[in-house]
Specification:
- The chain is an alpha+beta fold.
- The chain folds into three domains: about 220 residues, Rossmann fold (3-Layer(aba) Sandwich), CATH 3.40.50; about 90 residues, Translation factors (Elongation Factor Tu (Ef-tu), domain 3), CATH 2.40.30.10; about 110 residues, Elongation Factor Tu (Ef-tu), domain 3, CATH 2.40.30.
- The protein has nine helices and 24 strands.
- Strands 7, 8, 9, 11, 12, 13, 15 and 16 form an eight-stranded antiparallel beta sheet that branches.
- Strand 11 and strand 12 form a beta hairpin.
- The radius of gyration is 23 Å and the shape is globular.
Amino acid sequence: MEEELRLLQIDNPTPAQIATSLDEIEEENKKRHLSVVLIGHVDAGKSTVGGQILFLTGQVDDRTIQKYEKEAKEKSRESWYMAYIMDTNEEERAKGKTVEVGRAAFETEKTRFTILDSPGHKSYVPNMISAASQADVGVLVISAREGEFEAGYKRGGQTREHTQLAKTFGVSKLIVVINKMDDPTVNWSQQRYEEIKKEMRGFLKRSGYNVSKDIQVLPISGLLGTNMKTRMDRGVCSWWEGPSLFEALDAVEVPPPDPSGPFRMPISGKYKDMGTVVMGKVESGTVTEGDSLLVMPNNTPVKVLAVYCGEKKVRRAGPAENLAIRLSGIDDTDIFFGFVLSSVANPIGAVTEFVAQLKIHELPDKFVFSAGYKAILHIHSIVEECEIAELMHQIDMETKQPIPKKVYSVNNGALVICRIQVNNLICIEKFEDIRQLGRFSLRTKDKTVAIGIVIGLPLHQ
């Protein structure tokens, strides 16, 4: 990590040289920045797609690729070599599955991208949630191979759960890439493409996506890099007339964030390097080198020593940027994931309860949702045990108005207003104030049981 955040390499720099270099970097950073999360069922090819993106943008050389090919062949996993670019630890390479969230960056002429490669296995959904909570755009990777799409799409498959969780955590734009189109069972079949596209568009519409505005579906081969950086040759696929993946990403339109709000950066990583370094995505406001901030909820004053966008040191950075910030005034052992780096003038509140609007998704068998129900709360980078303290109202699904009678329990599909309690102080916002800090999911027994938004906070926060 120290290598990733190295300082500018200038031999004996003068103050003027440093200022000029920082100005040049800030000029580069005027390109818009988008965080892209790769989601989908296990074995759909997410890490291969991520690795291929880095190879196509010149961040991995041929010699390294040859080394990975040899390593994969020795493990009798010849087709996994591109995934080794994103899956860097031995457990991931041995099992052929992503465990941690892989992170990398690349640029096109218009946009700087951060790639977040999330795990596809159901055991690692919390890690996928962490990645989705930091993303602006989703790339849903689906395998076209015979039987693999169906396995991911059936109830319990991660194609469904990842899609719904991405929507919950604010990923409103989705590019659906139908991968492995080069597989012998598919052979760039238009019929197979249309079959999957039709099924997914219906499901995405039911999940709350505007399929005409927010969804794009395109065929690719992650292993071969076909239709990724450039449009594919008509000799490969005669029927495709749409864009490549890079073109589709560059064309995604997301509302520009407001840099004038109170500073908020949920902390999703930390380490020690000439001070304490915290990592996360800025959800509101702007940070400048030299700023005084607070680490919440422990209300610790800190000073910003340095700000990094990827490997580049910058003077200031605004919302939607994935940053590493070096701080003084706090030790890394006093920081936990889910803490929030916050402005002093308008600090984020810390609470142990809040009011939420919840949609019940899928309860475990023989469970009902009532006061006393316990679950794991996932909200931005927070993972915390919680309990339903009170069901306040059930909402009529047609009129969207409270049903005027006492509610004691609800089942799948219900919409409720409830009060939720946690044991430890957490930093959240109302959804109407800062959306990314007010969306959440509740999970039990490896299932997403409910999704919701924060609608009320205690007045004494």
